[in-house]
Amino acid sequence: MAAIDLTKDNFQSTIDDNDIVIVDFWATWCGPCKQFGPVFEAASEIHEDIVFGKVNTEEQQELSGEFQIRSIPTLMIFREQIGVFMQPGALPPQGLEEVIGKVRELDMDYVRAEVEKQTSGTA
Fold it and tell me: N or C: which end of the chain has fewer CB within 10 A?
């Protein structure tokens, strides 16, 4: 499945309606973004059970601001509506595959418990 364009209108519903969503924050003028684009697209064809979305930071400045994107490309991954990964910089194909594998292996019960601890202020 090819990557989809994410906007402020469809971003939250995309996160809410899918188990794993990988988001690439990018811009047309960004050299590293252009290098990473084909890697991202190729991964989207391999992993048909994952939604791959792209946020054009020039057109979606509100979204970029909401996630405090300071450097592009920045990759974010959501699993079960929880942000589990965020890293600036272009990944090589094997690096992206490694991150996807680790996200698939996450114990989401543990992740939810840790998020609950952080939000409730207990350590």
Answer: C
Domain tally for the chain? Answer: 1
The question of whether 30 is a catalytic residue gets the answer yes
Q: Is 13 exposed, middle or buried (0-12, 13-18, 19+ CB in 10 A)?
A: exposed
Range of the domain at 81: 4-120
Q: Could you tell me which residues are beta bridge partners of residue 75?
A: 24, 87
Determine the pLDDT at residue 120.
83
pTM of the model: 0.93
Residue in 30, 51, 69, 77 annotated catalytic: 30
Catalytic residue status for 33: yes
The residue annotated as part of the active site, out of 3, 23, 33, 50, is: 33
Q: Which ranges of the chain have pLDDT less than 50?
A: none
Domain harbouring 105, CATH code? 3.40.30.10
